DNA sequence: TCAGCCCATGAAAATCCTCATCATAGAAGA
DNA sequence: TCTTCTATGATGAGGATTTTCATGGGCTGA
């Protein structure tokens, strides 16, 4: 489970990160608007903690960017004051929850858990792309109502590509997502080729072709 | 994020700076030993890139100076040769990571990211437990200075257990950590048994026993 | 003591990663 | 424009790792 903490007060961000790491989440941090935007452009998170008061730009624009990218990341706004306008604006722009500072870390933990759970078990967890249907909580894939059995990595790859549809994802980013390890950004990424190939093969055998495009020298893309 | 590049080859320093600036870091450069010392005396950096072969003084002395000043700056050594002695000396003197020339800029970027992140989370890079030594960036484990080869999951498990030493970790938490997937909190966790068993076996074959305790009905614990 | 759950273990199956080889896109130059 | 060259991607096979499964032993509470 990956969390992005968008927060410019370093001490707060760090104590949140420490707490969440203890709770077995993987955390990343962004301290500025630009940093936040570049991270959400590249990666996907299970939950994003968003401070609305950011140096370099309005936090609400981060929400708009998420929406524009059609990202499914859960978002919890953490705002300096319990401003009703902020709350309404935030929830309206696509946030999943709202938490006013100061808050207890355990409360934050509970909210995160609930956002992720809602995302996982809610109705929005079935992706449908023409003849392709993906039930994320159940980890099942159907093509024209016939089941296709994918391995865990293949399934992850598929969901990740679709979650970033029409955008090229670099091989390194795919490698990192699949291995869950930043260190693997460094080594060789041959295994990505293998998973792409196997996924393409299984999908096309089921009659679902031409979605995964190779962007030579850049990565792969789900095109729709 | 501020980076100090201590490197006398001007072209290399410049191309690193250009790359890192693109990645939204602020860069400063030092081309000589004296220049480096005066900069670290005055300023603090999120990460320092240190070439050990410097005109005017040994790069390791820069590390000693940092230590003397009790600075917390992260340090990545970029060494002309892939010399084991350099690595060991560097890491012992307080560097956070090392990188042998020539390297890809993206690799450097990943290491910087990881060093900064680790600093934020307060983790260190080499764990030592009596006869057991773990080099996290290199993913190497030694028992009484003899290498032990662990698989990725075994390594992850070991680091996670030690990172929570003297605390019982539930099987579900271990399962989630190893699989990187919250959904696996629900299913069966038999594979944890297998990894625990294999890790115990490899460690004890190397002469490192009795650290991993089973807490019946509750989980496992690294006891020290 | 005994029942019932929990863990340990070995082996087999499934999955994943690596490696060597081949194919192809894009770049560079004629 | 055509050819050649180089880096990148595709592919299949093999080995390594991970996960599952079945069986047996041990802990704990009644």
Structural write-up:
Chains A, B: Keywords: DNA-binding, Phosphoprotein, Transcription, Transcription regulation, Two-component regulatory system. Chains A, B: InterPro entries: CheY-like_superfamily, OmpR/PhoB-type_DNA-bd, Sig_transdc_resp-reg_receiver, WalR-like, WH-like_DNA-bd_sf. The structure is a homodimer of 224-residue chains. Chain A is α/β, with parallel strands linked by helices and 224 residues long. Chain A folds into two domains: 120 residues, Response regulator (Rossmann fold, 3-Layer(aba) Sandwich), CATH 3.40.50; 97 residues, Winged helix-like DNA-binding domain superfamily/Winged helix DNA-binding domain (Arc Repressor Mutant, subunit A, Orthogonal Bundle), CATH 1.10.10.10. Helices cover 43% and strands 23% of the residues of chain A. The first copy, chain A, is built from eight helices and 13 strands. A five-stranded parallel β-sheet of chain A has the order 2-1-3-6-7, with helices on both faces. In chain A, helix 6 crosses helix 8. Chain A is elongated and about 55 Å long. About 2% of the residues of chain A have low confidence. At the A-B interface, helix 1, strand 2 and helix 2 of A face helix 5 and helix 7 of B.
